[in-house]
């Protein structure tokens, strides 16, 4: 029997507001434990929550960017469960009346495009954080995160493979970062997801029994965890067993999922409207005002890069994956670089150096204007592409402009045909055996002769001119 996976993802994105969703405490990450708390987020008796308007604005931006239907009337509800990091004994969320519903995003995997539906986007508060002592059977709780604003984005069960799941998460993260409403940091927990996975027979409609996966804090972990869980369930079903509905944790060290607890249903949380919060009624004019503030989003920018700059699909996809990266590329082109050359260099040399040092594009020491100057030297034939890479390394390390480095080190490309012909002739005379082999049809040896020229000129010879000269001399 052949099975297919049915995957739905629940994404929690922490919003980049300065204060929490129902109080004025700071949302800043990394503060001393329990230093950003107050009676409201600690759930003290007699306190009243007040909704942060900026949270609603940010949530509306994401809803508009993902083609959702916005509900002008939504309600906050209490989600009741008891856990040490939840001081009130309930979490304020939305249930029956969420902020937005019925949206979608488009993903591309292995050359095919697919729409992934979004069931709902709603607002809620975060819980605290438990820290377990590695040496004693003791846990500590930090309530700083309690009350930090989240939006939960719940996908339809449209995802069929781990690769589609990762592509969907990357697309959501990209949109959130373009909107500047979430930093998307998975390691710090500001962008995290839970996965619901089940298997069913191919060409059937009925869903199988699902498990929920938690504790995945990177795209790599998500892909590995989904792959493992799909194979675990397939093995059970093929042996005639039954999958148990439960919540499982991903154990990265062992590369397995393990059971955490039985899976709760909605009725287990005993949702009811929060009596301390009024319904959220949104004016349609405000929605339109927010719509006008939306930036050019990744999919639209990608199409523009292909049409305006003539970039291939892959280049456009990489360059528009991050808003700041796209802006860096466009500024390089604005300062005079040819678009495809700029694309090649940003994707190879620039990103390589940044990845080595785990830095963001905003931290790149080589500014767009400086990179454009370097690439113009290549375009004009002043230096070769190979030398340009050496110059770039020094620019990155020292901050000096390309022209200064080229001048100081005497790296200007040799383009005098007479000079290069003289050197080429001497090289040919030094390698008679290779000349005979080339003439006998071993044309790959042209690269050998060009390499000898580059060695003698320390990479300064113009490669195109060198190729032309050797072809002419070797044919005589």
From TrEMBL:
Main EC class the enzyme belongs to: ligase
Keywords: ATP-binding, Ligase, Nucleotide-binding, Protein biosynthesis, Transferase
InterPro entries linked: Asn/Gln-tRNA_amidoTrfase_suB/E, Asn/Gln-tRNA_Trfase_suB/E_cat, Asn/Gln_amidotransferase, Asn/Gln_tRNA_amidoTrase-B-like, GatB, GatB_C_1, GatB_Yqey_C_2, Gln-tRNA_amidoTrfase_suB_CS
Pfam family, one: GatB_N
UniProt family annotation: Belongs to the GatB/GatE family. GatB subfamily.
Function: Allows the formation of correctly charged Asn-tRNA(Asn) or Gln-tRNA(Gln) through the transamidation of misacylated Asp-tRNA(Asn) or Glu-tRNA(Gln) in organisms which lack either or both of asparaginyl-tRNA or glutaminyl-tRNA synthetases. The reaction takes place in the presence of glutamine and ATP through an activated phospho-Asp-tRNA(Asn) or phospho-Glu-tRNA(Gln).
Name this protein carries in UniProt: Aspartyl/glutamyl-tRNA(Asn/Gln) amidotransferase subunit B
Taxonomic placement: Bacteria, Pseudomonadati, Thermodesulfobacteriota, Candidatus Desulfofervidia, Candidatus Desulfofervidales
Designated gene of the protein: gatB
């Amino acid at each position: 029997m052949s099975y297919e996976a049915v995957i739905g993802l629940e994404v929690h994105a922490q919003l980049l507001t300065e204060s929490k969703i129902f109080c004025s405490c700071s949302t800043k990450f990394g503060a001393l434990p329990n230093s950003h708390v107050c009676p409201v987020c600690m759930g003290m008796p007699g306190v009243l929550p007040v909704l942060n308007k900026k949270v609603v604005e940010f949530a509306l931006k994401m809803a508009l960017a993902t083609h959702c239907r916005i509900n002008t009337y939504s309600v906050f509800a209490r989600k009741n469960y008891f856990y040490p990091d939840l001081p009130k004994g309930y979490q304020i969320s939305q249930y029956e009346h969420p902020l937005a519903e019925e949206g979608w995003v488009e993903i591309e995997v292995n050359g095919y495009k697919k729409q992934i539906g979004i069931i709902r986007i709603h607002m809620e508060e975060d819980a605290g954080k438990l820290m377990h002592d590695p040496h004693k059977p003791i846990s500590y709780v930090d309530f700083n995160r309690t009350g930090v604003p989240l939006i939960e984005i719940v996908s339809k069960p449209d995802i069929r493979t781990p690769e589609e799941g990762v592509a969907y998460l990357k697309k959501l993260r990209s949109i959130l970062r373009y909107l500047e409403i979430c930093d998307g940091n998975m390691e710090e927990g500001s962008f995290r997801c839970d996965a619901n996975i089940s298997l069913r027979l191919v060409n059937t409609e009925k869903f199988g029994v699902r498990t929920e996966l938690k504790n995945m804090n990177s795209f790599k972990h998500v892909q590995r965890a989904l792959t493992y869980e799909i194979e675990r369930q397939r093995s059970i079903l093929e042996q005639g067993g039954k999958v148990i509905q439960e919540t499982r944790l991903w154990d990265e060290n062992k590369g397995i999922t393990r059971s955490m607890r039985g899976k709760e249903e909605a009725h287990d949380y005993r949702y009811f409207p929060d009596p301390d919060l009024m319904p959220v009624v949104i004016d349609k004019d405000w929605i339109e005002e927010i719509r006008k503030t939306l930036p050019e989003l990744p999919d639209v920018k990608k199409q523009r890069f292909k049409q305006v700059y003539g970039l291939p699909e892959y280049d456009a996809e990489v360059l528009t994956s991050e808003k700041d990266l796209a802006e860096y590329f466009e500024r390089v082109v604005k300062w005079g670089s040819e678009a495809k050359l700029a694309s090649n260099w940003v994707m190879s040399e620039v990103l390589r150096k940044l990845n080595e040092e785990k830095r963001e594009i905003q931290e790149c020491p080589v500014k767009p204007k400086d990179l454009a100057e370097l690439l113009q030297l290549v375009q004009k034939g002043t230096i070769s592409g190979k030398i340009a890479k050496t110059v770039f390394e020094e620019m990155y390390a020292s901050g000096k402009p390309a022209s200064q480095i080229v001048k100081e080190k005497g790296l200007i490309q040799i383009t005098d045909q007479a000079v290069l012909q003289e050197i080429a002739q001497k090289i040919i005379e030094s390698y008679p055996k290779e000349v005979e082999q080339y003439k006998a049809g071993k044309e790959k040896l042209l690269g050998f002769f060009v390499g000898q020229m580059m060695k003698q000129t320390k990479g300064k010879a113009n490669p195109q001119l060198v190729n032309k000269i050797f072809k002419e001399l070797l044919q005589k």
